[in-house]
Amino acid sequence: MTNILRFVQFLALGTWLGSIIYFSFAVAPALFSALSSRDQAGAVVGIALGRLHHLGVIAGILYLVAALGLGLSPRVLVQPAALAVIAMLLLTVVSQHHVIPRMAQLRTKMVSVDATPPENPLRAEFDRLHKVSVRVEGSVLLLGLIALFLTARTPHP
Predict the structure, then answer these.
(1) Where are the domains of the chain?
(2) Is the CB of residue 106 less than 8 Å from the CB of residue 93?
């Protein structure tokens, strides 16, 4: 059973991290270069990011359930790897339910982000939230790498 639970932990983190890396370095740049407008690309990226967040929440929960199964005690949730996954989950949920919806509202109000001047208050707020979103995703990736490293080095019978 230990091997199965460890496998679930690695599969969950590997899937989540791999998805973030693929999305960030392949999907998003490809959309912005292939689609005829940056507004279209941004809309597709927003949809894809929402799906990535759902996958992340599922992966995080699976990881924590497996950790509980391995540790047989809620104390495992205060171990550094589990705390990193919990932080990943919290950041993902905040991004999905607060940052991304607000960006979508602003995108709708502006009609075109690209055509809206940077000094426009709506565009300025959108740009600020975009930076927050990128930082949140980068933080989730960094925390995930830390959690993966810590999980890999944790000995289990």
Answers:
(1) 2-153
(2) no
